Amino acid sequence: MAESMQGLKRTHRCAELSAANVGETVTIMGWVQKNRNKGGLVFVDVRDRSGIIQVVFEEGKSDAELIEKAAKLRAEFVVAIVGRVEKRSGAGNEKLATGEIEVIPEQMRILSESETPPFPIEENSKTKEEVRLKYRYLDLRRPDLQRNLMMRSRVATLTRQFLSEEGFCEIETPVLIGSTPEGARDYLVPSRIHQGNFYALPQSPQLFKQLLMCAGYDRYFQIAKCFRDEDLRADRQPEFTQIDMELSFVDVDDVIEINERLLAKLFKEVLDIEVTLPIPRMTWQEAMDRFGSDKPDIRFGMELHDVTEVVKDCEFAVFKGAIENGGSVRGINAKGQGGMPRKKIDKLVSFAKDYGAKGLAYIAVQEDGTAKSSFSKFMKDEEMSALMTAMGADKGDLLLFAADNNTVVWDVLGALRLELARQMELLDKSEYKFLWVTEFPLLEWNEEQNRYTAKHHPFTMPMEEDLVYIDNEPGRVRAKAYDIVLNGNEIGGGSVRIFNPEIQSKMFEVLGFTQEQANEQFGFLLTAFKYGVPPHAGLAYGLDRLVMLMAKEDSIRDVIAFPKVKDASDLMTEAPTAVDKKQLEELGLSIVREKVKQE
Fold it and tell me: Do residues 405 and 326 make contact, with C-beta atoms less than 8 angstroms apart?
């Protein structure tokens, strides 16, 4: 039978107690982690979000009725205990922050009883994620998840403090907005009042933060919910959180400088890690050439080597064909992996095929200096020798090559480099390597739509010196865009925005928008720009991903209180759900179900 806590007031969280409290009478409240009954001696571990404290019910120190009551406690009962803090009579527990003390109870109330939970509440749970997410409120009691969410709260609080001190105003932007088809797929919300019309949920506050610059607020930030209806991965959710900011009268260096200081503060205060400033910068082109990725992990080497020139005259059809079609031949050197079994190399080949490769050529340099190769019969000895020299090959190395157009070669070797680093255990989660990637291409060619699309968004400023290429060589134009990368993850990105109407019109023209289409989608922004717009720039972090890396987790689900699973459903609330017919009628909607074809 549950008892009332009336008359009691908690004095401390469990793990806030220490040897300094010995001799004090305290009141703690929390959940029973476990109960060990030794007959006349009952040890109860009580847990709250701060940690665990041991409570000892012992003959001679506690009355018999209290010991009998303690013996009936089960896991996850909620209790309130008034007692005296004492040094542990037995050996201390070094694993616990409170391991040298215990509480000797004077009274205990059972505030709530619990059924046996469907899985134990413990760190590093081995229980399947589907079960844990169904009972997420129990999963969230686990100390590791509680630490993650408290870390997230700390990151948000410190960000607010820092940006406020730097003169930023925190301003909320709307969640029900108009839909714009550029970018990922929108989540749509039907309007009851304007039947047949829809709001969209924002993929980011982009247009509104630019309007706030037009409105003179100078420096804005928001910890904003964003929504994208796209296929999910480990680090994606249909709804996610951005630390979003925009600044007026600034250029690239100003945005980078403020954000470097923000990152340094977060890592120092939360993890006690010094971030060396300034953070290194690398152009997009250099990142692709060296690492095959625009978000390179620079915790390890294994850089790409362009060997196109070395093999351009060889007779190996794969290399020859790629070069003749305007592509390249590049390779990576997996140091010390020359003895890799053939089966494992075959797995790497099929891994490469997943990223668009037609195959993967290799040279395994044996410890005696001889080479096993998948293509040596098509090469002259001097060509093989020159290739191995160009790759910096030593005895025992494994050289892997991709030959195709540059995009495929970069994708394949960039992914392969990371896969090999995982296999070779080169990735240390406690090492944090930051990098700015700058000068992205302004546009990228979209094969499906047969036109250029904006690599970031249509409001990204081109580099002034590249504007001469915009009509004849649009793919050559670089953007004033920058990403902040941490350990191979893009944690934030932004750009200087176009504020010149002529450049904006040209951008829409290159993207294939007519003036009417541009006005239809972005008319309110373009109109605002007629009334005095300051030069402005911004950046947004993925808060979930940043905290995931700080907490050394592999999935953002571990730093989000109530996440969705891969099909965008919520296992706990069972959302999305059907709604009743009356609600649909009010919205002027009807559900059309596709008929399943009969076999």
Answer: yes
